[in-house]
Specification:
Number of domains: 2
Shape: elongated
Order of helices and strands: EHEHEHEHEHEHEEHHEEEH
CATH architecture of the largest domain: 3-Layer(aba) Sandwich
Mean pLDDT: 87
Low-confidence stretches: none
Strand order of the largest sheet: 3-2-1-4-5-6
Radius of gyration: 20 Å
CATH class of the largest domain: Alpha Beta
Length: 228
């Protein structure tokens, strides 16, 4: 089971912590304000009152064992930068940080943040979906309304062409590439697989097991496709 630690329980932090918990993931919620932590009791796996700028306290809490940390400090830029640096030093593989502006984002990248977000409440739900979906490989935000996802081809789409599926008509999305593993013979006679990407696939391209679709569309339409 994936484990998430969410630091900072303002509107964004509490929203994503709750959304991830609803998906049955282990969520550790942290804030230095007791009132904010109390609101999360019963909504997440564990909610703790803690000063997250204290590296020793974070280490003792065991956050280093978590897969992903989400830093959502709404008040001070300095604190979010310090916490991001601390989390990376503790060895957390993926650190996602809410940025207040472009300069803040630039500094966060410099200290090791793996992903920067400029969220509204709805973005918390989209981020939770991208982290939680076992079918989703990647998510790229193009604008406030549109993005690109990489998603494993749903079973019901297999052995059909893009023309058969009519994804633009049915879901208002466009398949801009197909990634697949292609078998090839090695010099020793054994078979192995290599990655192949079909850019701008045509209507006659047929989808096979293992294909990953790179899809462009509105967030709402992409969310519908993920549920197929």
């Amino acid at each position: 089971m994936k484990q998430f630690v969410v630091i900072g329980l303002g509107r964004f932090g509490s929203s994503i912590a709750t959304a991830l918990s609803r998906k049955n993931f282990e969520v550790l919620a942290i804030d230095e304000k007791e009132s904010s932590v109390n609101k999360m009791e019963g909504l997440v796996s564990q909610a703790v009152v803690l000063d997250a700028t204290d590296q020793k306290a974070l280490a003792e809490l065991g956050v280093a064992s978590f897969d992903t940390a989400i830093v959502s400090m709404g008040e001070t830029v300095e604190d979010s930068i310090m916490i991001t640096l601390t989390l990376k030093e503790l060895g957390i593989r993926q650190v996602i940080v809410k940025a207040q502006n472009e300069l803040h984002a630039k500094i966060l990248k410099k200290v090791g943040a793996d992903r920067i977000v400029f969220p509204e409440r709805e973005m918390a739900e989209r981020l939770a979906e991208s982290l939680a979906s076992p079918k989703l490989f990647d998510f790229i935000e193009l604008s406030k309304t549109h993005g690109i996802i990489e998603i494993v081809t749903p079973k019901k789409f297999l052995n059909q062409t893009l023309a058969d599926l009519k994804l633009r008509k049915r879901y208002s999305v466009s398949v801009i590439a197909i990634k697949r593993k292609v078998p090839y013979a090695k010099p020793d006679g054994t078979t192995d697989f290599k990655d192949e990407t079909i850019i701008g696939p045509g209507a006659d391209d047929e989808l096979i097991a293992g294909d990953v679709l790179v899809v462009l569309g509105h967030y709402d339409d992409l969310a519908k496709l993920e549920k197929v």
